[in-house]
Each structure stands twice: as structure tokens, then as C-alpha cells.
Amino acid sequence: MLTTERIAQQVGRLPEPLQREVLDFVEFLREKHHVVEGNEESDSLLSLQGGLEHSVTFAADEVKIQEQLRDEWN
To answer: Which of 19, 39, 59, 60 has its CA 20 to 30 A from that of 4?
Structure first.
């Protein structure tokens, strides 16, 4: 018997509140270990890194950009 089948069998024997607790724990493990399915990976923050490297807005000196952003709020 596969592990997933054994898990389903054992969880199926639990009362509903405990089944929800198992589901919460599984979701916690997925987040903790960064498990993604299908298109979720393309939406992750890591997939977006470096997206502004060729941006005209952020092409200037870092200090100048910070000064401009700060001055916009004053």
C-alpha cells in the first residue's frame, strides 16, 4: 500500500475536527518546505526576482533613487 493510501485510510477514520487539524498540519508542512504545485511556482516571489534590472526608473545610482523617493513624500 502506498503512503498516500495509508494516510488517506487513517485520516478517514478520524472525526471531522481532527481531519481539519491534519489538513492544517499538511498545509503547514507544505509552506515550511516550500512545496509548490503546477503554476504556483511561476507566481512565487522568487520567480519575480530581478524583474527591474533593466527598468529606466531604477537605472540611476541607488542613492539618487532613494533621495528621489524620499523627496516625493516631503
So the answer is: 39
